[in-house]
């Protein structure tokens, strides 16, 4: 089914956009999850309900991992698994902003093989399938080929620049920017709008699975904070941070980061 997973994800993402945009973010009912896990809105749950009905029914042999569904070990016995964030950037959604995304991926034996990141309020549809390249709104995209880190624009939250994360006791010089959706940050790197992104905290798989493939298919490199390739559908679905960039910038960031530095909020 791998050849047809991408069209399935695209159709589901477009439907997710229709559902989410029926809600006014500032007026949508909102709750805070236990243990400081962040907010959830009725839009997140409505999108999740549609996706959980639609996708597994189309691929009954696939596992299911979603931010808004209680996890089950059943997915660990499946060769392929859907990895879903119904709305990445829920805080932005709840504030009525436009920078939030639907993030949908399929992982096969731990490797993402089909991926979609869709921002309906910005009319941006990023897609990739393994070996077929990455596209934005039907046009091919490529990651930055910049070679000088000092000239780079890197998407990162400010705490990532704290001295204890870096081998030399200080962050290297580069331009810093920020976007609230982690999936969107990764898509922007794949697009070449920014030269790289990093988050040094333990990161949930559903935030980064789709972006991992889209970046790699755009010619970039995506790894955890120690430089190791990302593997998905783990028993505990968190990964050790993310570094994503073109090959030269990724190498320079990896070399200067302290792989044993403490985790931080994203």
UniProtKB/TrEMBL annotation:
Keywords: Magnesium, Metal-binding
CDD domains recorded: CysQ (cd01638)
Record PROSITE patterns: IMP_2 (PS00630)
Cited InterPro entries: Inositol_monophosphatase-like (IPR000760), Inositol_monophosphatase_CS (IPR020550)
Family membership: Belongs to the inositol monophosphatase superfamily.
Name the UniProt record assigns to this protein: 3'(2'),5'-bisphosphate nucleotidase CysQ
């Amino acid at each position: 089914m791998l050849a047809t997973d991408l069209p399935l994800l695209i159709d589901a993402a477009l439907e997710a956009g229709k559902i989410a945009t029926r809600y006014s973010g500032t007026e949508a009912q909102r709750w805070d999850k236990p243990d400081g896990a962040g907010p959830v809105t009725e839009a997140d749950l409505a999108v999740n309900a549609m996706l959980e009905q639609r996708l597994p029914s189309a691929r009954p042999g696939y596992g299911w991992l979603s931010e808004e569904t209680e996890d089950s070990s059943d997915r660990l016995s499946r060769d392929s698994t859907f990895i879903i964030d119904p709305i990445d950037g829920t805080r932005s959604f709840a504030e009525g902003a436009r920078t939030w995304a639907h993030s949908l991926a399929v992982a096969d034996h731990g490797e993402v093989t089909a991926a979609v990141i869709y921002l309906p309020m910005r009319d941006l549809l990023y897609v990739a399938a393994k070996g077929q390249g990455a596209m934005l709104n039907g046009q091919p995209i490529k990651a930055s080929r910049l070679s000088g880190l000092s000239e780079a624009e890197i998407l990162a939250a400010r705490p990532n620049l704290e001295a204890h994360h870096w081998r030399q006791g200080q962050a290297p010089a580069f331009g810093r920017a920020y976007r609230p959706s982690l999936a969107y940050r990764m898509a922007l790197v794949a697009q070449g709008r920014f030269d790289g992104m990093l988050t040094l905290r333990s990161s949930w798989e559903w935030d980064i699975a789709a972006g991992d493939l889209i970046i790699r298919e755009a010619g970039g490199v995506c790894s955890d904070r120690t430089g190791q390739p990302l593997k998905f559908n783990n028993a505990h679905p968190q990964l050790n941070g993310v570094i994503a960039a073109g090959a030269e910038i990724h190498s320079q960031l990896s070399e200067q980061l302290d792989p044993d530095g403490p985790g931080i909020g994203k």
